[in-house]
């Protein structure tokens, strides 16, 4: 009997396969197509011949954890005890799975804000929990009336992705304050803060759960170097949480992966001494601005993009087709691949929106925009 009977081939695989079949420019999957930093390559080449290829400690390479703690203190003024409050994971997806499968038991409810990343619900289901999907407002702001109404005695956790994939929206200070007021009434509810795009913000600064004293004792923060350092294939992420929560998560992590790729941990630890995350944000802002400027004369309507490396567009002026069919038509007739936003909703809400990934070379973005302007 399947634990995930309704899970089929992901839309990302479907669109990428179609893109391959038709030789389309692939702006669907969320990973860069440009080289990583030359300094990271040089560090990697040198380390490859050093004695770093055996297991690291289960919780992670101490040097990497120290560097992450320094980064967290610098950016969020949170002092993390690496021995008791941090865990290196095989990407943020494994961190999310570990957190949910540590704390969710049969019948527990988990609030998920739609549109949402596709790994949350399956992780809840494997744990035996019940996903409770709550739609964001039309402008993708949180609907706190719906959130509060959905909280019950069975609610164990709420998952919040900020900066938000797929919409690119970032929570405001006022929204955090409202969440704090609501959760003050429900002390049993834990928070899983998915912050993998934390260093890719443009319009206003990213506010991390790491910087919220009222929430910090009940929050697990998931982060990822794959997104911020353009090394998605290295699968190195990390969790930060208070000791009482981390103690339990380490038990599950130990028997899930034990320890994460040693080479990647060593290379990232050294690279963190030279990389400037503000430069990463500037680079992606330039790409966002380039892509937006290239499309300003098209018939696509550009939605706001506060962070991440995704641009959402509305195609109401172009077609009345549903977003999945229009995304397929965009590949077959115009040779550009995107992701339809309805697939991120439990009820397949369709507002004629597509998501483009602009973590691509300028040449790729220019070539894609030329085709999109003809649609």
UniProtKB/TrEMBL annotation:
<dbReference type="InterPro" id="IPR004839">
    <property type="entry name" value="Aminotransferase_I/II_large"/>
</dbReference>
<keyword id="KW-0032">Aminotransferase</keyword>
<dbReference type="Pfam" id="PF00155">
    <property type="entry name" value="Aminotran_1_2"/>
</dbReference>
<feature type="domain" description="Aminotransferase class I/classII large">
    <location>
        <begin position="25"/>
        <end position="371"/>
    </location>
</feature>
<protein>
    <submittedName>
        <fullName>Methionine aminotransferase</fullName>
    </submittedName>
</protein>
<keyword id="KW-0808">Transferase</keyword>
<dbReference type="InterPro" id="IPR015421">
    <property type="entry name" value="PyrdxlP-dep_Trfase_major"/>
</dbReference>
<dbReference type="InterPro" id="IPR015424">
    <property type="entry name" value="PyrdxlP-dep_Trfase"/>
</dbReference>
<keyword id="KW-0663">Pyridoxal phosphate</keyword>
<dbReference type="InterPro" id="IPR015422">
    <property type="entry name" value="PyrdxlP-dep_Trfase_small"/>
</dbReference>
<dbReference type="GO" id="GO:0008483">
    <property type="term" value="F:transaminase activity"/>
</dbReference>
<dbReference type="InterPro" id="IPR051326">
    <property type="entry name" value="Kynurenine-oxoglutarate_AT"/>
</dbReference>
């Amino acid at each position: 009997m399947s634990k995930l009977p309704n899970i089929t081939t992901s839309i990302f695989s479907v669109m990428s396969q179609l893109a391959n079949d038709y030789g389309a420019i692939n702006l669907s999957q969320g990973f860069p197509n440009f080289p990583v930093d030359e300094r990271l390559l040089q560090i990697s080449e040198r380390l490859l011949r050093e004695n770093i290829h055996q297991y690291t400690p289960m919780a992670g390479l101490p040097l990497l954890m120290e560097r992450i703690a320094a980064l967290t203190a610098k950016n969020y003024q949170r002092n993390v005890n690496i021995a008791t409050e941090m865990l290196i994971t095989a990407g943020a997806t494994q961190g999310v799975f570990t957190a949910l499968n540590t704390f969710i038991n049969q019948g527990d409810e988990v609030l998920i804000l739609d549109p949402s990343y596709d790994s949350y619900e399956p992780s809840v289901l494997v744990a035996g929990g019940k996903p409770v999907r709550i739609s964001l407002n039309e402008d993708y702001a949180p609907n706190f009336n719906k959130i509060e109404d959905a909280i019950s005695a069975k609610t164990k956790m709420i998952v919040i992705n900020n900066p938000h994939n797929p919409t690119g929206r970032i929570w405001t200070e006022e929204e955090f304050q409202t969440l704090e007021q609501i959760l003050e009434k429900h002390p049993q509810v834990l928070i899983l803060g998915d912050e993998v795009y934390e260093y890719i913000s443009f319009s206003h600064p990213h506010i991390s759960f790491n910087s919220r004293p009222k929430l910090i004792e009940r929050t697990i923060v998931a982060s990822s170097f794959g997104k911020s350092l353009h090394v998605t294939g290295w699968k190195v992420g990390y969790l930060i949480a208070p000791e009482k929560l981390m103690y339990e998560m380490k038990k599950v992590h130990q028997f899930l992966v034990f320890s994460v790729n040693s080479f990647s941990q060593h290379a990232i630890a050294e690279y963190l001494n030279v990389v400037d995350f503000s430069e990463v944000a500037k680079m992606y802002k330039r790409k966002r601005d380039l892509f937006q400027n290239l499309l300003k004369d098209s018939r696509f309507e550009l939605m706001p993009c506060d962070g991440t490396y995704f641009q959402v567009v509305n195609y109401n002026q172009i077609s009345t087709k549903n977003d999945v069919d229009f995304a397929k038509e965009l590949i077959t007739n115009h040779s550009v691949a995107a992701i339809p936003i309805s697939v991120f909703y439990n009820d397949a809400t369709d507002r004629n929106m597509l998501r483009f990934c602009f973590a691509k070379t300028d040449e790729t973005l220019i070539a894609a925009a030329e085709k999109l302007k003809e649609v």
